Amino acid sequence: MELSGAWQRAARGAMLLAADGTLKPTIFAEMSALATSTGAINLGQGFPDEDGPAEVLEAARQAITDGMNQYPPGLGFPVLREAISRHQHRFYGLTPDPDREVIVTAGATEALAAAILALVETGDEVVTFEPFYDSYAAMIALSGAVHRTVALRAPLFQPDHDELRRAVTDRTRIILVNNPHNPTGAMMDLETLELIVELAHRHDAVIVTDEVYEHLTFGRVHLPIATLPGAWDRTVTVSSGGKTFSTTGWKVGWMTGPSELLQVILAVKQFLTYVNAAPFQPAIAVGLGLPDEFFRGVASVLQGKRDLLSAGLRHAGFSVSESQGSYFVVADAAPLGFADAAGLCRRLPELAGVVAVPMSAFVTDEHKSDYASLVRFAFCKRVDVLERASAQLAGLSR
Ligand SMILES: Cc1ncc(COP(=O)(O)O)c(C=O)c1O
To answer: Last residue of some domain: 235, 268, 288?
Structure first.
């Protein structure tokens, strides 16, 4: 059976279509399969191996017991929309109206898909920062838009402002921001965020910003682009409970923004999933209302894990970029004599009993060589797992 033309475009956009037209598995699927078949420690895919807060888990059990098991309203349960609105106010001073400016989605993934599909016409341009999360490229290609990228180069992974100015034009419909950034762990500085707002105004573009790692930052406070002067009216902010509360499998996400934009996006979202995750919605509402210490604690525990794995990677001989946020750290394998990270990742289970993902999985074919020796490691794992991985990786340089 042939994949439809539109999805062939999407698969090509996401670099999953081989030259002979066959579909390749994603590198995440390939690497996770390798972890399973070899028993290696999986630092490839970004999911935590410990449960999140007990109150949140208990609230989901209670919601099931209480019978919250049918379709929620199209916008999401009011209890969650109100909690999202309060959260935006508590942390960022934003005041989205829970009835008009908040929509609950099936993870951030659905929010991003609906936003791109709703706002973009064939031939429009979408600007992303490269490397990028793989679903962006697939959705941009599916929408028929042209994908323009601005490079984030090692070791700091900040965009060059002139390159950004050249990439955004009157053809740009969306500037798609991801801050804190997967896979690099970089956070955008204020000047870059201001420039994005300025360019969006100048070229009448919408900013869609993926902030799923908003609470997982290390020594830096996350600044949503929607808080900048002039940004709110043209910004759709996307986030999710998966990362903050270690509930990635629940797929409870949301978007906030001006109702004119959200109404249009809702028209698409209602035909993607319509609604999802009924009993998990009130549970994430409980999570969003947890005291500040919880949010500080999540970040500081993860910072300790970042430090542990980064030190292990340095000790093993990698050159390591400092991760400022997210679950991920980028390590350059060139000092160890590995110029090809994809090749190294395929051999890493046998060499060190560890699985990781090459950065080339997050870049377009024409830019793969710029990232050829870089590897992404996930540190959202138990301390003993990270210690074991570090000890095993130390054997690489011997
Ligand atoms: C940058 C980024 N955006 C979105 C997602 C997906 O979020 P969700 O599971 O809420 O759909 C991920 C998950 O890895 C991510 O890293």
So the answer is: 288
Q: Which helix (H) or strand (E) holds 41?
A: strand 41-42
> Which helix or strand (DSSP H or E) is residue 134 part of?
helix 134-143
Exposed (0-12), middle (13-18) or buried (19+): which is 86, by Cβ within 10 Å?
middle
pLDDT of residue 12: 85
Distance 113 CA to ligand 1 centre (A): 12
Note the pLDDT tens digit of each residue in 173-221: 999 999 999 999 999 999 999 999 999 999 999 999 999 999 999 999 9
Residue nearest to atom 1 of ligand 1 (CA): 182
Q: Which of 227, 262, 288 is the last residue of a domain?
A: 288
Please state the three-class secondary structure of 140-153 as a single string.
HHHHCCEEEEEEEC
Domain count for the chain: 2
Ligand 1 atom nearest residue 110's Cα: 11
Residue 23's pLDDT is: 83
